[in-house]
Predict the 3D structure of the following.
Amino acid sequence: MIAILIRDMRLAMRAGGGFGLGLAFFLIVVVLVPFGVGPQSAILAEIAPGILWVGALLACLLSLDRIFALDFEDGSLDLLATAPIPLEGVVAMKALAHWLTTGLPLTIAAPFLAVLLHMPQNGFVWLVITLATGTPALSFIGTFGAALTVGLKRGGLLLSLLVLPLYVPTLIFGAEALHRGMAGLDATTPLLMLAGITTGVIALLPFVAAATIRINLR
Amino acid sequence: MSLWEYANPRKFMQTSGAVLPWFAVLSIIFLSTGMIWGFSFTPEAENFGSSVKIMYVHVPAALMAINIWVMMLVTSLVWLVRRHHVSVLAARAAAPIGLVMTLIALFTGAIWGQPMWGTYWAWDPRLTAFLILLMFYLGYIALWQAIDDPETVADLTSVLCMVGSVFALLSRYAVNFWNQGLHQGASLSLDKEEHVADVYYWPLLISMAGFVLLFITLVLIRTRTEIRARRLAALMARERNQ
Amino acid sequence: MDRALPLFLRGLLGYAGDMELMNVRNLACTRGGAAVLEGVNFTLSAGQVLLLRGPNGIGKTTLLRTLAGLQPAIEGAIETEPDTITYGAHADGLKSTLTVAENLEFWAQVYGMRDINPALDAFNLQNLKTRDAHNLSAGQKRRLGLARLLVTGRKIWALDEPTVSLDMASVELFADAVRAHCKAGGAALIATHIDLGIAADLLDLTANKAKPRDLAGFDEAFE
């Protein structure tokens, strides 16, 4: 199973693999917002947590259709489905690879972009904590969405339509925990809920996604 | 006799064809009674003015919007467990009705909200939850549209319905947490003190019954259409293979 | 499923029977919800090569996918021990940005094998080892796809048109690989239209084209 993780990471890093695209997209979204909203630092600081969370979420969404679509096109998915590794494990490893190449870099880059939005410095720790807790959920939920649309030629738009509603709770709890943490309030509840969602989807969704892929392959 | 007998498309078509006119007539009677009574023969409320009367559309539509999703969840589970095509086709047939009910609830709510709260829209938990429900309906319907193979699409939409239900519940909890709202509590409830006054009670109940009957009528018609479309496709496939 | 336990027990007791690797009885398969094949019967023994024949669209690919476990059979039984079959499709499952060796090593790891050199030798890929897969010609890609079979360690090869875009010499390499595989106790099930020059049995599917099913059946009125 480690082989799958290594292969997916390698593919993402090599030419055309899309690594860095999500990161660049995140940067551009964050840069565009002040152009739309205006340069007043008070307003930007106010909306920074939301912008950073929504930006990270969209950047995550951008690369979801790569998780299975390429493997489906070149026949690898058929071969993986008949391999001795359980398909659930394949799915979990692919989701993990997606997080390592998307969610993790986003989390690390977020504080630097937060500077552009005049986010107060005491928020940086909370920004990293909430993104690190929440982005794995985005990858695993997204993997389920990618599994649903794997057989479709132009599934990207449908994938967004299916996945975005599923992202709502993660976004709400993530941004809320960040808001509260920054304001010096007690952020335990939203943070625990966020962690709960993440652990829940990591535990359950690979099974659902694997079943979905089997349906799509037959 | 068992309930599963109606899972046979042929049996379903016979029975539903026989009961359909009755449901249609009943829904017309209940809806017109509820609406006319509600709109014309109830007093205007103290603080609400005549705008309160939109309640006879708003509350039943909101109720149906949620219940139709629950019905879709149940029929999807029946499909996954027992593989009855009629079951999943009923879920497919119900989804656009649920979507319309959600839209009605949102629109009438906005019209009602303007005189009441001074705004068409507020990011109140209930309103937000309905907006999220709308997105789930859209995704579910879009998935049905996207895939041709009948078994595959039935399985996929059923899985989406199940997973979606879990996330819809989570979202409901999340938006409650996110913003304590200004929407009033449940309009009808048995154990709470603060339900609507008795003058409004009966017409509202009749409107609700009317909406339920209307839904049954529509979902039967639409399920019958889906079954016929499926048969047509099967016959054409058969033609091609010969 | 009901067959799994006795087979499992047989495996435990080291009982190999008459070296029958696969026994298919009265199999029917579907494509896109419609039945395409029915009443397919055959057995595959160790060392045997079975060529699938039949006109285009008869359902050779569907049959192979069903045997590989990618789609369920609508009736009939496939008796085989678990993890004996590997499926080689039209698509090779290659990653264009990985090198030949990386591609092959990945599949070797997935199937728990170590050494990829025999596979590289068998399909004459040693000197292409470090080349990226997108710089390979169509025939070279195909050879790499076929080399994957050797690193799976599975006994039954279910192959769908394996010789597409191969030149004569490469077809000969492939035929050699199949012969060696059969000699070592394996078997192959190949859908192909060309003569491979291997001693093989034929399975003609023309007569197995599914007839339309009865419309009156309970809950099956759509088929």
